[in-house]
Amino acid sequence: MTDNNTFLGNIEAEEAILGGILLDPQAISIVADILPLVR
């Protein structure tokens, strides 16, 4: 989030990624290589 509390993400995309990982735990290794690390 930014200083003005504006969410700059995509909830649907996050849900899809997390859902896929729940269905196939081995998918985390693929996802971790593709998605950037956000701090």
Automatic annotation (TrEMBL):
Signal peptide per UniProt: none
GO terms under biological process: DNA replication
Domain DNA helicase DnaB-like N-terminal, residue spans: 10-35
MF terms (GO), sorted A to Z: ATP binding; DNA binding; DNA helicase activity
Domain of life per record: Bacteria
Record-given protein name: Replicative DNA helicase
Keywords: ATP-binding, DNA replication, DNA-binding, Helicase, Hydrolase, Nucleotide-binding
A Pfam family that the UniProt record links to this protein: DnaB
Listed SUPFAM superfamilies: N-terminal domain of DnaB helicase (SSF48024)
Cited InterPro entries: DNA_heli_DnaB-like_N_sf (IPR036185), DNA_helicase_DnaB-like_N (IPR007693), DNA_helicase_N/primase_C (IPR016136)
